[in-house]
Specification:
The protein is an alpha+beta fold and about 260 residues long. Helix content is about 15%, strand content about 40%. It contains 5 helices and 17 strands. Strands 6-5-16-13-8-9 form a 6-stranded antiparallel sheet, with no helix packed on it. Strands 12-11-10-7-14-15 form a 6-stranded antiparallel sheet, with no helix packed on it. Strands 1-2-3-17-4 form a 5-stranded mixed sheet, sandwiched between helices.
Length: about 260
């Protein structure tokens, strides 16, 4: 393990975009290519989608992730600069994220397990609106939500699909999850709920043959689900690094004051 006086081992994970590949070539020429399976630090080059893919790929080992924006929004990324990378990594502030664990049962009886860093979303598959009942910690809270879908977002993911669906922005330290309907028809005025991060959610699909629903964890999908449970995985910790002036907590706060 490296000490503060030893340069950390760095590897790079890049998107396929021209900007990301150019950045990859520049950085590997300066710092070496590194080994993704052995590095202390993985530097991600791209946008938020690339960051999510890198987090999923490195989830099962202890590694710190430092993103540099070569994409569009880059909410989870730092600014791109090829110089002074080792010093930036040493100065960076840590953010610990806990992903969501999804367990879904599909219409063929199979059980599927997926992990989400941003959100878990349930979406109708056809023109028919979905009908979903919602249980929280074993207690039914909504007998029937008629909607295009519903999602569960972590604080880190609350500014993504959740925000587009008019869900709340959650500070990282809030210790809560957002439960947000997507185009709710009944109850029409229901805007969702904010739940403790240790809550266990269970969604039961009503009329699944007539009104099929898919379940997606970030970018992984299970089709024709009949039942889905979602909870936070406290045993898995993901470490993101941010420049002090671009800390994720500050970005989330700033986002709440955007017009």
């Amino acid at each position: 393990m490296n000490t503060l006086n030893t340069a950390p081992s760095i590897a790079f994970f890049a998107a396929e975009s021209p900007d990301a590949r150019t950045a990859f070539a520049e950085l590997t020429a300066r710092y070496g290519a590194g080994d993704l399976n052995q590095a202390d630090i993985v530097v991600v080059l791209g946008g938020d989608g690339t960051m999510l893919r890198a987090l999923h790929q490195t989830m099962n080992r202890r590694v710190r992730i430092f993103g540099m924006n070569c994409g569009t929004v880059g909410f989870l990324m730092n600014r791109y600069d090829a110089t002074g990378l080792v010093e930036r990594v040493r100065r960076a502030e840590q953010v610990i994220l806990h992903p969501l664990q999804l367990t879904a049962r599909s219409s063929d009886g199979q059980e599927h397990r997926l992990v989400a860093i941003n959100e878990v979303s349930l979406l109708r598959e056809t023109a028919q609106a979905a009908k979903i009942s919602i249980e929280i910690d074993g207690r039914e809270r909504m007998n029937e939500l008629v909607c295009d879908g519903v999602l569960v977002a972590t604080p880190a993911g609350s500014t993504a699909y959740n925000l587009s669906a008019h869900g709340p922005i959650l500070p990282l330290a809030s210790g809560v999850l957002a439960l947000t309907p997507i185009s709710a028809f009944r109850p029409r005025r229901w805007r969702g709920a904010i739940l403790p991060q240790r809550a266990k959610l269970r969604f039961i699909i009503r009329e699944p043959e007539r009104r099929p629903v898919s379940a997606t964890a970030d970018f992984n999908e299970v089709r024709e689900v009949t039942e889905v449970t979602v909870c936070q995985d406290q045993n898995t910790a993901l470490t993101l690094l941010f420049d002090p002036e671009h800390h994720l907590e500050e970005r989330i706060l700033q986002e709440q004051f955007q017009a």
